[in-house]
Amino acid sequence: MSGSLPFYQKHHRHYDRGYRSKDTESKLSQYQTSSRYAAGSSSSSSATTSRSGGLKVSSYSGLDSSRLTPVLKRAKPTYLAVDKENQIIGYVVPIFRGSQEFATGYLETERARVRDTSSYMAGRDLFTSGLEMERSEQTSRREAIRESAERISLNKRIHEHGEHFKRMNEDSLMHPPEFVIKPRSHTVWEKQCVRLHCTVSGWPDPRVVWYKNNVAIDPLSNAGKYKLESRYSVHSLEINRCDFDDTAQYRVSAMNSKGEQSAFASVVVKRFKGEIDESLPSPRHGPVSEYGINFQTHIVDKFGVSFGREGETMSLGCTVIIYPALNRYQPEIQWYRDDVLLSASKWNHMSWSGDRATLTLTHLNKEDEGLYTLRVTTKSGYETYSAYVFVRDAEAEVERAPGAPLDVRCLDANKDYIIVTWKQPAVDGGNPILGYFVDRCEVGTNHWIQCNDTPVKFARFPITGLVEGRSYMFRVRAVNMSGMSRPSRVSEPVAAMDPADRARMRGTSAPWTGQIIVTEEEPAEGIVPGRPLDLQVTEATKNYVVLSWNPPGEKGLEGVMYYVEKCVSGTDSWQRVNTEIPVKSPRFALFDLAEGKSYSFRVRCCNSAGVGEPSDPTEATTVGDKLDIPSAPSKVVPTRNTDTSVVVSWEASKEAKELVGYYIEASILDSNVWEPCNNKPVNGTRFICHGLMTGEKYIFRVRAVNAAGLSQFSPESEPVEVKAAIASPAPPYGISVLECVCDSMVLAWKQPSFIGGADITGYFVDYREVIDGVPGKWHEANIRGISERAYRVSDLKENKKYQFQVRAANMAGVGIPSLPSDTFLCEEWTIAVPGPPHDLQIREVRSDSLVLLWKPPVYQGRDPVNGFYVDIKEADAPLEAWRGVNNKATEKAYLKIKNLKEGETFVFRVRAQNKAGVGQTSDVTEPVLAVTKPGTKEIVVDVDDDGIISLNFECCNMTPDSKFVWSRNYKEITDPSRLTLETKGNKSKAVFNTPAEEDIGIYSCLVTHTDGASSSYTLSEEELKRLLEVSHDHKFPIIPLKSELAVELLEKGKVRFWLQADKMSANGKVDYVFNDNALSQGDKYKMNFDKNTGVIEMIMDCLTPADEGTFTFQLKDGKATNQSSLVLIGDVFKELQKESQFQMKEWVRKQGPHFIEYLGYEVTKECCVILKCKVGNMKKETSALWYKDGHQLKADENLGFTEGVLKLEIAQHDSPADRADYADDVIWRTLKISKKDSGVYEVVLKDDRGKDTSTLNLKDQGFKDLMNEVFSFIANSSTPLKITSTDQGIRLYTFVNYYNDLLQVTWHYKDSAITFSDRIKSGVVGEQLWLQITEPTEKDTGKYAIEFHDGKGGLRRTVELGGQAFDDAFAEFKRLQAAAIAERSRARVAGGLPDVVTIQEGKALNLTCNISGDPLPEVTWLKNDREITSDDHCILKFASGKFASFTITGVNMADSGKYSILVKNKYGTESGDFTVSVFNPEEAGGKKK
Q: Which DSSP state fits 1340?
């Protein structure tokens, strides 16, 4: 069974280590990366060596190139074809490659001789015959061998000369080892041999040691396994008959007095599954010569262990990097499941995008569970990567139903008979599985038919009654008491046909639909068939028996069918089983046999010619299960593997037949809940259970499965905690010297990068002396492990050279030693400055800060160290980028570095100084990324209810081996007298025992076995003082109060003492104390404590002189207490007593009509004054009387009150009318308010219950305050100050809504009050207040303001008269002034002329009018719009420039008409019109008659 184990379950060290922890997994990945091309590289080297024969050896014959005449370096051949952009597009095959490559390595002086060789001839003439070229090449080789011998002789002479020169000048010749050719990695098949070889130069000659997994190889310890050879600087390691244990990383170390060099190679041993599997291609070795390219393949971005559920889709993918990258070159991509090659199907889709290989499982089923392997094959070898995929059952359609069966297959298919097999599910739903139902479906249809009526328990079932030539698919369902499971994945289609016909048709697949036409040989008519042959019982269960036989020899007969007969043992009565229809297949299943009885069976052939003789009967067969359920496995042993997986091994079931595999179940300890670890049976007795919870303890059990069923569970295993397995630590590194004296040296080193999953318990130091560059044997410097990473190695010899190596140890053992250090000379240091600090550590890494720790130098120098400097630079910056962090030396051995750039990587170093100066720099730290890791926590200070101060730290990324390490000032706390440390789970607490000043400092906490989880907290003097105060408050708790004890007056003058507690329980108590005397509930004192709100109160009806003193409420709730006092003595008590008495009187007053708000006044926006008061407890009979200066006011119809408000609008009337109207509102209106309205106003309310009076004094100051409020309203109603122009000058003005003669305003010019004159005047016109500037000039420009006085701050409005505003106003003034002058001086007819003059004929008419104007206007008279002149009849005069007269001496009828006088000067023209009507009296009289 072991031959079919998948790779992941095979017991090999390299596999286990790869899964133990993330660190080892990473190292294994690196190791695998460096070992990918074993097949190509090694074979190529071997092949090349064998082809070249002596040539290859002579080229590296041990002659050091530095001691010979310079030889032209051989150019590395390249066979890549590139385009114009230097992109690789293909490759070229060189002509006569071997000869030409050899020829290019000779000196220029030897080229004449080489031209006669076959290589030169071949290059000159490509058509030289093959025989001639072979002969010339042999000649060339002989000459090369001869030349090699000459060089060996020359090398000997030069070596002798070098020995002499070495003694003269040793350092100029010695150089450290160098690998001219490094060993290459190999991948080989099991039982093959592999050889690693390398070429090393160096002087003195290096000593070469081979290591396997950093353990030196001793050929004598395993005779015949290893073979080591060293010839002419060529060193080789041969491994004979490789097995899996030889899969490892091999290191070859070359060492001399100048140093040590190492090279690495990996060997991977692979095994075929059982015999050589045709699905696995044979490995290819070496670069393909026809291409000349050695491909390098790297698989990155890999898929990990995956979990899915039935019915889901899952994609597995890896990124593949192949170098060199050739256009249109595609590697061979193959996917395997459990070492079985997968092909594309409806279940598996494979894709290759050029750099990424993807496998998509379209519909997961439990058959898809297993180890998946990606294999990338190139012409140079192959690369693989594997990971396991787990598939869980889909949710059951019926609760507690079993899981679906899996791996349904069809066996022994015949014409009308097929055996269907399957595997039982791991999940039974909590109830035993009663059996299975098999369904069939003809290909091309979706109609499923159940094949068995009753469930079968055996995982194999014969299907009969099939139609020959048709194809079928099958599925299986499990059933228990709860119900039916989901159906399994359908089987592959299978055709019902004769196996012989199927063999003839092999190579063509069965059709999906329709019938297969079966043809036979021409039948022989009339021949009865013979007996069937080899009848036997192939399978017998309690449900059925399966018979099989071979057809009779006469195959050419007509189509043969069969009858089956049975006979109960002990009788001779044969009974035909299939009486109606004979069977066509040489297979038959008999059902309905009596369990426990024995039967014999025989078969007859028949055709159209008749029924043949029966076959020989079978042996008696008892009906019953022949295959037993396997016994339970035993000795289940779980082993730690990784932090999410456990390796489970067990002892196989004994005497198990036809074993299918094992199911493993896991349960968290004490949970009694079992979960399957695998849903597909696994072979072998070892399995890795993944997906477990880190830190939990699990127990495991196993059961076996075969076709008969599942075994009982094995005994439960011992509990195992899920965490990474421990291993010995990696070697330390970075060995340096901290101090050196005449006989000892102090060493320091860095902690291993991988500590093996457990704390390092100590270090061991070895040393060896180096004499003339040759190292001696190692000696132990210490027998007991040392915990510090620094150690003084004593008993050394002065002026001798030494090398050192260090090994780390943990609970798993002592790790491999580090690489030997540099060679150090043991001589006493005499320098004045200090040595380098050491053991640099980085803590508390955040996005912008970190803490750097170090240890002082061991060598102090001439004077003690008095400070340190820290340097910083970006990790990838040049050396010139080092810069100091602190300008002033720090005396502490730690420093918090701030203001880092987030996301940048930094390195640090430290220098110490003393009086002599600054000493050597320390080793540089590892690069640190400035970023706050997710889940980072900080130390939190806490004070509990008992006043205990503690520092608390929580870590979310702990491992099972993690520990909390607390430090003060970054020195681990070991003295428990000051702090008590407590750790529970992922939380740790440092509790201060007795906090004091000596506890001041920086407290830090580090969590081991994490990625640097740490934090710090600075306890300063101020912080300690604050914490002590909080601690005192918690230790001696005080009941918090929302309000202290206070006093207030209630209705009727009652006095209420009260306070409110913030929080008190139901058990809280209160004591009431007055002048140290307890008070109790009674007539005088009423106490109340509302525990829901925390309000505590005590009420007294009144205060008497005896109540003067101190009142105290004392609170107690558990151990928490508090009290609050109120002192009522002297004036305070008297005022409170007076107020209490007043409140009592007020209560009495309010029993009748009373004032709620006493009389006051209100000024409206219209500057009206309203006296108002609010009254209460009124009724219909209540009267309200207004008085002024003791005289009752007789209000008009506006008197009244509404809604409890009485109003009186102050009115000014010459004779007010008396009116008393008890309406809801009392109002008396006025137009203005003046000094006459000042006086004392009074309102009296009275009815039969009593009366109340309210008085308002509006005299003197009261009236002044009232008017100031009026003035304030007036001022606020004023508009912004504006500018206008008149014919006299410029006017500034503002409008108010209401003007009062008592209003006082002041005009300002440039912030000074204006002195008025004839030129500058102010006045009021209606609601306009103005300032007139007559005949303005430029001197009048500036800022003007008007200030309203209201007895308070007043109000000022300003305007700027200047600039454009002044120019515009001045121009407008000039325009208006000119218009006014013109208006005054233009010609005018002042009056004196009537509109109509009626005059009797013959009479005289004399009209005169006044004329004005400057200059003197011209006067023109018109009649009927025609100018008339003065004559004897019509006399026109203009006298004294003022009077114009019009005289008609004797009026006649012709004088009737329209007359006009027109006056005109340069300012204008004006006319006066009148009409003259002349009548004749006689004519008028005649008309009347």
A: G
